[in-house]
Every structure is written in structure tokens, then in C-alpha cells.
Amino acid sequence: MTSPLGAAFPRTYPCVVVSVHDADTAKVFLDRGGDDWWLTNLRLHGCAGRELKDPGGPEARDYLTGLLTRIRPPSLADMFRPKWQGQCESLKYDKYGGRILGRLWLPDSPLDVSTLMVRAGFAAYWDGTGQQPKPDWPIIAR
Q: Is residue 131 domain-resident?
């Protein structure tokens, strides 16, 4: 599959979050420079979150939404202000198509969002190979 509008993999973009679908997928705007913004779905690399239909799925989605409020601007105009921009490293297209696989960082955070989700217990580490793991539910205190 070729990249739309010349998107390159891997590459890091400033980004803002538009919405959160579940515990490991969000809709993001990637700033490709100048006036070129790309709206796409991002599947977080390095983790598997609970599915919405599973027990704990809505809670996991809500936790991710809370994490991403720092890069989810309150208005369209705010999207262009650096304080609302995180960083997204696009790695490749997801195997299911229609979304990219990548890492997402909050402003001034040394850890990517996948790591934060795993540490909080709302996702399990997963490199994308083998059977997808399910994080424990309810979350077991660590």
C-alpha cells in the first residue's frame, strides 16, 4: 500500500488528538509541515488495550481519553498552538488497514502513551505478533 499524499514511514510529526475510539486507537491530526495536516486513525504500537465490548473496555478508553486531554485542543484554532501538540511517530500501516501504527508522546513526557497505558493496567504489552493479550480485569494492584 502506498502512503497517501507522500506520507513516509517511519517519521515523527507534531500532532493533536481529535477523538479516542478505544484503549489503543485514536483519531489524530498529524502536522506534516506548512499547511499540510493529515487526519488519520492511529493504533498505538507496543500495547493491546481492552476492547470496548469486554469488561473494563469503556474504563480503559476513558483512561486513555484522560491521558490525551493534554493534546486534545478545546477548539480547532487551538490545534495550531504548540502547547496542545504531542508527538506521533508513524511506523507503518496497521495490518487491518485504514489506520497507521505508531507511538504517541504527550508534551514533555519521556514515556510514550502505550507504556503509560500498560503501567496503569489498562493495556498489556504486545509487539503485534502472536495472539493478542488481554490485560487483567479488574486491574490488580501492583
A: no
Domain assignment of residue 140, yes or no: no
- Written as one string, the DSSP assignment of the chain is -PPGGG--SSEEEEEEEEEEEETTEEEEEEE-STT-EEEEEEEETTEEEPPTTSTTHHHHHHHHHHHGGGGS-SSTGGGGSGGG-EEEEEEEE-TTSSEEEEEEE-TT-SSBHHHHHHHHTSEEE--S-SSPP---SSPPP-
The model's pLDDT over 32-73, given as tens digits with 9 standing for 90+, comes to: 988 899 999 999 999 999 999 999 999 999 999 999 998 999
Residue 127 lies in a domain: no
pLDDT tens for each residue of 86-132: 999 999 988 877 899 999 999 888 999 999 999 999 999 999 899 99
Instruction: Give the CATH number of the domain where residue 74 resides.
Output: 2.40.50.90
Query: CA–CA separation, 124 vs 24, rounded Å?
Result: 10
Q: Which domain holds residue 62?
A: 8-121
Domain-located, residue 138 = no
